[in-house]
Design brief:
The chain contains 20 helices and 17 strands. It is α+β, with helices and mostly antiparallel strands. The protein has a 5-stranded antiparallel sheet. Strands 7-6-10-9-8 form a 5-stranded antiparallel sheet, sandwiched between helices. A hairpin with a 5-residue loop joins strand 9 and strand 10. It is elongated, with a radius of gyration of 60 Å.
Length: 700
């Protein structure tokens, strides 16, 4: 059953005996009169104000006199400054003593201390401060520096008054410059100030006392006439109140005019009328509370109430359905962690609110995630009336949050496991996402990248911000293939794809960067290979075009050799017809080395044909992957090809390199791809030749 604790208005009917007892009670004496209390309070406030004003006046006067003494010390500086400097400059010990004694006789000065330019005391006397200690010393003067015992304080050191000082430097004008001789400190204390203000303080105190006494007498006389008498009549009238006749009760204290007492009289009569109406309205309030109880029962939140001692006494329908019966000790039966339950109740029993998430047992002992709002309810006087707990089951929400968190982790792992650099940016270019590949490539951690500008983190991608904005505006991805950039002195290539993100929550883009340097180089090698295949295809035609003239040259050289050196009858007949003999022609050819030249033409043609044949065999694509080959012949053909290589010949003559062939006899045929083996051997010969050439250039 819901306990309703509305305003408690206790209305009891006083019996005639009780009324008579009140009426026959003692009258209020002067000491207990509200007028006297009011007078006492006003007088106390006045006394505090008067004392405060007087003390403030005294403080201002004290401060003014203290400042006046400081100004006097400054005036004394101007009076004695030159004389002190002159006495010290001339080392006039007696004049210095006389000057210091004169300064100590001035009422504002209680002590003097003079130090040289090194901070050593050369004259002290009176009450001074040394090393943050105030004391009194006798007058001692020594221009060469005081001894330690001369600077000691007397046994009866004065330290009851605060000391303040005025310090000024001692400068002596000499010719065109000013020489600093030391510094002078003049001391005064609060005793000097008190001597100036004590008479003024006494007059202020006497003035305040007289005004206070006069005000007390005047206020006492007027309060009796204006307050005590009307209040007595009002008190007597209130003792006659009877709750049974509130509708006809009326108070008349006989006050005239418009003042506080007449207002009080009218207010009291109005209160009686309001009290009568309140009794009528109480029933309406109870009906309203019944409606409120129905609203609480209809709430979908589980609402429970406990008394100020923590004893559970009410729970609504939703509470019954969620938790069932929990007894009188909720921390022990409802909370999974009883210590948290004790903390909740201790907090709200102390008058404070507690809000947070806790775990509680459902009616079937299932553990639920609960959002708890616990409140204390106080009455108008601040007394604790009830403890209310509002429980919302958030178990499904928590499970959804956990699933969302798991999904986020899953997506994050997918993003981090990708071999591509993935960078999320907002429209301003600020990085919002940074995966593991981006961290690996750049060496920059997520915490150092997220929240910073893309242009600052990866400068070579700053040019992509225009395409990022274009992707966001057009909702279309932007692709840049094989984009070159400089990295550690090397040209590298990357593919950049910008995916726009346009959601209701945020706008931005995801930049995917893939390093395609190796792929570009492989593609270049493939293109070069295709070119080489094309060259191989052209080699056959070139070989045919070259072999035909070579065959003609070699055939003509053989014909010339046969017709000029052979013993054919046709040769002899032609020689006789020409008026010579074959022996003469052979002698001429021997003398002019024509026979050797013809042999050289034939040998060169054979060698050129062999080189063309080797190049053709090297460039031709083998139809069969593997076949038997003589490695010695392959090596010889590679050496001949290396000797005719253009790149090598434009730097050096490969034929000048001595090649030592050490082949085993009767080598078996080796199954291999001749073109592949020749390519490997040719690369080895080329690298070796280049290394030899570099070494020769280094030696030179």
């Amino acid at each position: 059953m819901l306990r309703l604790l509305p305003w408690n208005i206790t209305l009891t009917n006083s019996t005639d005996k009780e009324i008579d007892k009140i009426n026959s009670g003692q009258k209020i004496n002067l000491r207990n009169s509200i007028a006297t209390k009011l007078l006492r309070i006003v007088f106390c406030f006045y006394l505090v104000i008067a004392i405060s004003v007087t003390l403030s006046h005294m403080a201002l006067e004290y401060s003014y006199q203290k400042d006046s003494i400081r100004r006097n010390l400054e005036d004394i500086q101007r009076t004695f400054e030159h004389g002190l400097a002159l006495n010290i400059w001339k080392f006039d010990h007696d004049s210095l003593r006389s000057t210091v004694e004169g300064m100590l006789k001035i009422p504002e000065i209680v002590g003097v201390k003079i130090q040289d330019e090194n901070g050593i005391n050369i004259a002290i006397g009176g009450i001074i401060e040394q090393e943050n200690v105030v004391g009194e010393v006798d007058l001692h003067i020594n221009l060469f520096g005081l001894k330690q015992d001369e600077s000691k304080f007397k046994q009866n050191t004065l330290s009851n008054f605060d000391t303040f000082e005025h310090q000024f430097p001692l400068n002596f004008p000499h010719e065109t410059r000013t020489i600093q001789l030391g510094a002078v400190s003049t001391y005064s204390n609060t005793a000097v100030v008190f001597n100036r203000v004590k008479l003024g303080f006494l007059l202020l105190i006497i003035n305040a006392v007289l005004k206070t006494v006069a005000l007390w007498v005047i206020f006492l006389w007027f309060s009796k006439r204006l307050l005590r008498k009307p209040l007595t009549l009002l008190t007597e009238a209130t003792t006659k109140v009877n709750l049974e006749n509130l509708d006809s009760f009326h108070i008349d204290i006989g006050a005239t005019g418009h003042n506080e007492l007449t207002v009080l009289e009218k207010s009291f009569n109005s209160m009686i009328n309001n009290l009568h109406r309140a009794m009528i309205e109480r029933k309406c309030v109870e009906e309203a509370m019944s409606i409120f109880r129905s609203a609480v029962d209809a709430s979908t939140d589980a609402i429970g109430m406990s008394d100020p001692n923590g004893q559970h006494y009410y729970q609504n329908t939703a509470f019954d359905q969620l938790f069932g019966s929990i007894g009188n000790d909720p921390p022990a039966t409802l909370y999974v962690d009883q210590s948290i339950g004790r903390e909740v109740f201790q907090t709200i029993m102390a008058g404070k609110q507690w809000t947070g998430e806790v775990k509680m047992y459902a009616a079937n002992r299932e553990i639920l995630d609960i959002l708890l709002r616990a409140y204390p309810i106080h009455d108008a006087d601040g007394q604790l009336l009830n403890l209310i707990g509002v429980h919302t089951d958030i178990s499904k929400t928590k499970r959804a949050e956990q699933e969302l968190h798991s999904l986020r982790n899953y997506l994050s792992n997918i993003i981090d496991s990708m071999p591509s650099i993935l960078i999320g940016v907002d429209p301003d270019g600020t990085i919002t996402q940074w995966n593991n590949e981006a961290q690996r490539v750049t060496g920059m951690a997520v915490s150092s990248a997220v929240g910073h500008s893309l242009e600052d983190v990866i400068p070579h991608l700053s040019a992509e911000m225009a395409r990022v904005r274009q992707a966001i505006e057009t909702h279309e991805k932007q692709i840049s293939r094989k984009r070159p950039y400089q990295h550690n002195g090397e040209i590298r290539f990357e593919d950049i794809i910008i995916y726009p993100l346009n959601t209701a929550d945020a706008k931005g883009a995801v930049i995917r960067v893939d390093d395609v340097t190796e792929r570009v180089r492989v593609e270049e090698m493939m293109i070069q290979s295709e070119k080489m295949l094309s060259v191989g295809g052209l080699a056959a035609g070139m070989a045919h075009e070259i072999n035909n003239p070579l065959a003609g040259m070699m055939q003509i050289a053989e014909v010339l050799s046969n017709r000029l050196t052979g013993d054919l009858p046709a040769n002899k007949l032609a020689a006789e017809n020409a008026g010579t003999t074959m022996d003469s022609i052979r002698a001429y050819m021997e003398m002019r080395d024509l026979t050797k030249m013809l042999e050289n033409i034939h040998d060169s043609g054979v060698r050129a044909a062999k080189i063309v044949s080797n190049m053709l065999n090297f460039a031709r694509k083998d139809s069969d992957n593997r076949s038997g080959h003589n490695l010695a012949e392959l090596l010889d053909r590679c050496i001949e090809l290396a000797g005719s290589d253009y790149d090598l010949k434009k730097k050096y003559d490969f034929r000048q390199i001595k090649i030592i062939r050490e082949y085993e006899d009767m080598l078996p045929l080796v199954p291999c791809e001749a073109g592949t083996i020749q390519q490997v051997i040719l690369n080895i010969l080329r690298n070796g030749a280049e290394a030899m050439q570099d070494e020769m250039e280094h030696v030179d």
